[in-house]
Amino acid sequence: MTTMFEVEVECRVCGEKCNRMSIGSTNSFGSPDLDTRPPEMQRSTIYQWIQRCPSCGYCSPDLSKCEANVAEIVATDEYQNIITNTQIPEMAASFLALSYVEQTQGQFSESSWRAIHAAWICDDEYDLEASISCREKAISLINQANSHSQNIAKQAGVSEVITIDLMRRAGKFQHALELIGKAKVSDIEEIILQVLEYQKSLIENSDTSVHTISEALGTT
């Protein structure tokens, strides 16, 4: 089960105090999705992974902390336009706002994951257009991360597997197939090759829906 508790936090950017829910403990049962989203109950804790200051709009896993120059970034029109975007779910906008901060700071790996998390929120809200947009943003950020030698995953081939799933879910089938071809010739474990083959079969069926790792491995 998941346990949560309410805490008062003071925004490091503007000093506003507010109450936010914090995760005490959680668990998960089942298989993660192909993009690594965990199963329940951990899955639903995503809504506590990030906090937004009701005053200045600063978004962070912990409002009481921030790095140098964050306040300046939060004050920019670019940042404020993200958190006031009503075309996407509010929580997704919060993740994208944090993604923008990290991108501005050159933290492209972390920024990529925030965009992926934003896509998961859009999935929950059944907002297909926004989920595709977030996945396209994540793909772009992963490319930036790669160009700066920043990996979004430690295990060889996992970054490619996640990127391929983002491409497939966004309907970018040809790009996904090209990346599968490149990934399969690299030195990766057999389990990764199985997932790549499964992704290829999904793409051949124009399947953009969510699937799990256990499906790919035939263990469901």
The number of helices is 9
Question: Which outline best applies?
Answer: globular
**Proportion in β-strands:** 5-15%
Outline the biggest β-sheet. 2 strands, antiparallel
Strand order of the largest sheet: 1-2
Distance between the termini: 23 Å
Summarize the structure.
The chain is mostly helical. Helices cover 49% and strands 10% of the residues. The protein has a two-stranded antiparallel ribbon with strand order 1-2.
Q: What is the strand and helix layout of this fold?
A:
Layout: E1 3-10, E2 17-25, E3 51-52, E4 59-60, H1 70-74, H2 77-83, H3 90-104, H4 108-124, H5 128-147, H6 158-169, H7 173-184, H8 190-204, H9 213-217
Antiparallel strand pairs: 1-2, 3-4
Tell me what the structure shows.
- This protein has 220 residues and is mainly alpha-helical.
- Helices cover 49% and strands 10% of the residues.
- A two-stranded antiparallel ribbon has the order 1-2.
- Strand 1 and strand 2 (17-25) form a beta hairpin.
- Helix 4 runs antiparallel to helix 5.
- The longest helix has 20 residues, at 128-147.
- The protein is globular.
- The model has no long low-confidence stretch (mean pLDDT 94).
